């Protein structure tokens, strides 16, 4: 499925893996998360093998039998479970939903809870697997801004998998472009401009220069 | 998005009086149903008076005198303790084996024939063998009952383990949950319906087997008493003991099992 896949992410950088559907983006993340073992190659994670990882899966994967707050606290290391999470919940607009069960949340809110869970553990690496997929565009956009806000307050190395180029250009410092199967890296696209200056005009320019650079591949929307 | 999330609460408020009414109705129905049975029994016993078919009032008199003498509470307590002990033994051992077999398909393939064997050995055979091998003692009695129940628990819990959602296990792995947390927050909530099913059928099966165990090799307990009254041909006493025990089991079901289930499935109902 994957072949000659080689990339790196700098510390506290927000990188995106962009590629066509079914090219193995999710598999790449699963390898990094240690959930997939059938591969050859090496992964180097920052620090020791004990790098703390957090993941936002495609589905929120909250435990339906625990409240939002219990879900978040459960993911935290035991000595930090009593930490104050007011600020995090507040930023993500979840303050009122702390004692709700996941089935009482809309998908957008459940995704927020999943993001809260990932950030609550103060991870060394944050892995996001298409966290905005199957949301309506307005909700997705709102969630992207939210993610940006909470991430910039707790900067950490982040790697997001997506097939949405607009999203990648809006959020990331670097876009890693994958080919179709067997997936390998076609090239990377660095965006040095700070996120807050990326208004619509700038994003359109970035999109154009991205398309010029990767004129050969037309899989991105 | 805000109100969508508060809707369930409002819904719950409307639902509560309706649910209360419904509960009241079903209680009434149970009382009525038992009442009709009692009347039918009384009429039957009056029409065909016989020592082997006592009227409900006779049974009640026997019940009161047996209770007053302290015999009935004593034997009832002994039987209840045996039921409880073999129930917890069977549930614990059966659940552990069930989870292991559900997780390891090779082990499951290997042990499945054993399981089928134990499922089909008659309870009586296990009881007799236990008494022969381990002597006529309490441990043999309780062990024999547990062994009868364990295969059923294994089968149910094995199904439950196979149905565990791997996504939650992966989430637990990524967030490095400890073994105890995995058990408490990931595994047990998913197994809860299977454990409930195994317990329900378990209690019913176990108390019947306990009576046989008592009849064969113990000198106390409801089973022993029933055997004694059988030899004395005292049907009223047999019925008094049986009904007393059934009443206790019903009480446990209503006061312990159902409220417990009510709390442990709270998250499911609020989604309604």
From TrEMBL, chain B:
Protein localization: Cell membrane
Q: Which UniProt keywords apply?
A: Cell membrane, Membrane, Transmembrane, Transmembrane helix, Transport
| Alphabetical list of Gene3D superfamilies matching this protein | MetI-like
Q: Where does the ABC transmembrane type-1 domain start and stop, copy by copy?
A: 76-256
Predominantly, its location class is: membrane
Q: Membrane-spanning residues where?
A: 28-48, 80-102, 114-134, 228-252
| UniProt xrefs under InterPro entries | MetI-like, MetI-like_sf
Q: Looking at the record's lineage, which domain of life comes first?
A: Bacteria
Q: What is the name of this protein?
A: ABC transporter permease
Source organism (scientific name): Phyllobacterium brassicacearum
């Amino acid at each position: 499925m994957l072949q000659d896949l080689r990339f790196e992410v700098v510390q506290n950088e927000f990188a995106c893996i962009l590629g066509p559907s079914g090219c193995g983006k999710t598999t790449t993340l699963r390898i990094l998360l240690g959930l997939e073992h059938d591969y050859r190659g090496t992964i180097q994670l920052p620090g020791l093998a004990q790098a703390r990882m957090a993941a936002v899966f495609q589905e929120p994967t909250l435990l339906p039998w625990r409240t939002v707050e219990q879900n978040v606290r459960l993911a935290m290391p035991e000595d930090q479970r009593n930490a104050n999470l007011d600020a995090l919940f507040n930023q993500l607009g979840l303050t009122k939903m702390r004692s709700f069960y996941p089935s009482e949340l809309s998908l957008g809110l459940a995704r927020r809870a999943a993001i809260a869970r990932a950030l609550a553990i103060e991870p060394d690496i944050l892995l996001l697997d298409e966290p905005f997929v199957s949301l309506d565009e307005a909700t997705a956009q709102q969630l992207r801004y939210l993610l940006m806000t909470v991430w910039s307050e707790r900067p950490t190395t982040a790697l997001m998998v997506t097939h949405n180029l607009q999203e990648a250009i809006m959020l990331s410092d670097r876009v890693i472009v994958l080919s179709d199967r067997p997936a390998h890296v076609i090239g990377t696209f660095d965006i040095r401009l700070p996120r807050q200056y990326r208004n619509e005009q700038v994003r359109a320019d970035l999109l154009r220069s991205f398309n010029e650079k990767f004129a050969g591949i037309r899989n991105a929307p | 998005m805000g109100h969508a999330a508060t809707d369930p609460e409002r819904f719950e408020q409307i639902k509560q009086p309706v649910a209360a009414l419904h509960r009241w109705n079903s209680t009434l129905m149970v009382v009525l149903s038992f009442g009709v049975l009692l009347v039918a029994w009384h009429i039957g016993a009056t029409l065909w008076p016989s020592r082997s078919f006592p009227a409900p009032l006779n049974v009640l008199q026997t019940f009161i005198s047996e209770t007053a003498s302290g015999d009935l509470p004593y034997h009832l307590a002994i039987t209840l303790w045996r039921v409880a002990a073999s129930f917890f033994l069977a549930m614990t051992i059966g659940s552990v084996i069930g989870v292991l077999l559900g997780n390891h398909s090779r082990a499951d393939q290997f042990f499945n024939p054993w399981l089928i064997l134990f499922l089909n050995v008659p309870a009586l055979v296990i009881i007799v063998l236990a008494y022969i091998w381990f002597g006529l003692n309490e441990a043999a009695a309780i062990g024999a009952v547990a062994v009868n129940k364990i295969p059923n628990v294994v089968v149910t819990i094995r199904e439950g383990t196979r149905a565990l959602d791997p996504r939650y296990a992966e989430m637990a792995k990524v967030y490095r949950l400890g073994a105890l947390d995995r058990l408490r927050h990931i595994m047990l909530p998913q197994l809860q319906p299977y454990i409930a099913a195994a317990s329900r059928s378990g209690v019913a099966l176990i108390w019947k087997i306990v009576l046989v165990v008592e009849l064969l090799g113990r000198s106390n307990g409801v089973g022993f008493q029933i055997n004694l009254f059988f030899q004395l041909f005292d049907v009223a006493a047999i019925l008094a003991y049986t009904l007393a025990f059934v009443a206790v089991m019903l009480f446990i079901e209503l006061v312990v099992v159902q409220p417990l289930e009510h709390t442990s499935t709270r998250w499911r109902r609020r989604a309604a």
